[in-house]
Amino acid sequence: MPTVRATRRVHFSAAHRLFRPDWPDERNAAVFGDCANPNWHGHNYELDVTVEGPVDPTTGYVMDLKLLRDAIEARVVKDVDHRNLNLEV
To answer: Residue 2: pLDDT above 90?
Structure first.
C-alpha cells in the first residue's frame, strides 16, 4: 500500500518579549536586540504540520485535510493566535 504525506499550513500572529528580569533594560537590549522591547513586539508565524501514512483505499486520503486543519486550530492556533506568548500561553 502506498504511503503519502499531506501537509497543512496555518498562519497566526503573536507577541512576545525575550528578556531576563534580573538584567537591566540596556543589557537585555544588547543581548536580545529588538526582541527585548519592554513594550513587547509581534511576529506573524507560519506553521506546517505534516502527516504520513498509507492511503485509505476508500477515500484516497492519508487523512481528511479538514480534520487536520480543525485539529491544528483546536490544539495550537486557538491558544496562541493574537496572544502574548509570555503572559497568556
So the answer is: no
